[in-house]
Amino acid sequence: MRPGNVRRPPSYARKARGGGLMLFVQIFTILLLLLFGLVLFFSFQAEDLSDIAGHPSAPAESQEELGLTRVEGPGEISEMLQLQPEVRLTEEAINEYLQRTLAAKQLGSFEGFAEYVNTWVRLVDGQFEVIIERKLFERSVTVSLHFEVMRQGDLFLCQAKRGRFGNLRVFGGFLAALQPAVRELHDLYQEEIAALTETGRVVIEQDRVILERGY
Q1: Is 173 in a helix, a strand, or coil?
Q2: Could you tell me if 163 and 144 are in contact, meaning their C-beta atoms sit under 8 angstroms apart?
Q3: Model pTM?
Q4: Cβ neighbour number for residue 162 with a 10 Å cutoff
Q5: Is 167 exposed, middle or buried (0-12, 13-18, 19+ CB in 10 A)?
Q6: Which of 59, 120, 127 is nearest to 93 (CA)?
Q7: Are 145 and 163 in contact (CB under 8 A)?
Q8: Disulfide check for 92: which of 53, 119, 197, 211 has CB 3.0–4.6 Å away?
Q9: Beta partners for 79?
Q10: Residue 51: HSE in the Cβ half-sphere, 13 Å Cα cutoff
Q11: Whole-number Å distance between alpha carbons of 86 and 84
């Protein structure tokens, strides 16, 4: 080989390398499409709400042994706490109150391309979940935020821990997409939230909230 001459690889070798890169791009694109399809699939699979007291799909069982199953408003809770050391409010009572009162309030961000159905609350030990149920193309779709309740001094703090689009769990920055509707709920029920948090102690248990009178 003469000095200065550079030997080029055969054309079939260049084609092989180019073909390998193209195959990698195609496989990567297919995987992305599959992942996107799975995300859509789980997002549009509505969360099972049959364990929420008061939901139409839940067993018709009263929670009377756990506490109140109906309240008329925040004033009733305040009056009861003046007469007794604690009030036990069931998940059934909270959801019944939401269904009875939310339709009369201005919904704002609940309206959109999906038909609003209802808002539900699920209570577990030390935490609660707010679920917004909508209907899209005659299918039920849900979004939810899971909160942990803490107290700092005289303040009750609710921290969003995780959320769900249907059956797809989301964390971190994705929770920001779920917060506007829940924030609007907070604004609509300022009076009710004040009545709950002005008590001496709030304990969230499975299926109920215990409100203890402050001294």
Answers
A1: helix
A2: yes
A3: 0.74
A4: 17
A5: middle
A6: 120
A7: yes
A8: 53
A9: none
A10: 9
A11: 6
Question: Residue 213 phi/psi, 5° resolution?
Answer: -70, 140
Would you say 93 and 72 are in contact if contact means Cβ atoms under 8 Å apart? Answer: no
Identify the H or E element spanning 71. none
CB-based contacts of 198, cutoff 8 Å, min separation 6: 78, 214
- Helices 190-197 and 179-188: crossing angle in degrees, nearest 10, is 80
- Interatomic CA distance for residues 87 and 208, integer angstroms: 10
Structure tokens at 166: 């249907």
Amino acid at 186: H
- Evaluate the CA torsion angle 99, 105, 108, 113 in order and state its sign: positive
Environment class of residue 34 by beta-carbon count within 10 Å: exposed (0-12), middle (13-18) or buried (19+)? exposed
Mean pLDDT of the chain: 77
Q: How far apart are CA 120 and CA 92, in angstroms?
A: 10
Distance of alpha carbon 99 from alpha carbon 84, whole angstroms: 27
pLDDT at residue 103, rounded to an integer: 66
* Tokens 């939310």, residue located: 102
The tokens for 215 are 């001294």
Q: Following DSSP, what letter does each residue of 183-200 receive, concatenated?
A: HHHHHHTHHHHHHHHTSS
CB 47 within 8 A of CB 178: no
Measured from the Cβ of residue 180, the count of other Cβ atoms closer than 10 Å reads: 12
